[in-house]
Design a protein that fits this description.
The protein is an alpha+beta fold and about 110 residues long. Helices cover about 25% and strands about 30% of the residues. The strands form two sheets. Strands 3-4-5-6 form a four-stranded antiparallel beta sheet, covered by helices on one side. It has a two-stranded antiparallel sheet with strand order 1-2.
Amino acid sequence: MPNRHLFVLNAAGEPVPCDNPAEARAWASEVDSSVAFDQLGGRRVTTVFTSVPMGTDQDGKPLLWETAICTPDAVTVVRRYPSLQASLAGHEEVVADVKAGMPAGAPGSS
């Protein structure tokens, strides 16, 4: 099985591999991984840095940020991203979709 890196953010906010799980846990306990948050009625749209790759994009970059829609009954991950900039833009698109009444992941949603 290939080595699956954990990632932390350096001082510039860029992800760097971290092969020491204890070091990654210590880093994660000291930082706020939240990137963006919006409360829209009974739904929350939240975007976070995950530290654990959730796949790769078409260029092979790890997907380390994700946006989820949370309700009292469920959490639906709707997007994953390879960069902070992409996650901020994607978060705003998901917020716009929720405001427009589109269900998470609906065809034609942003």
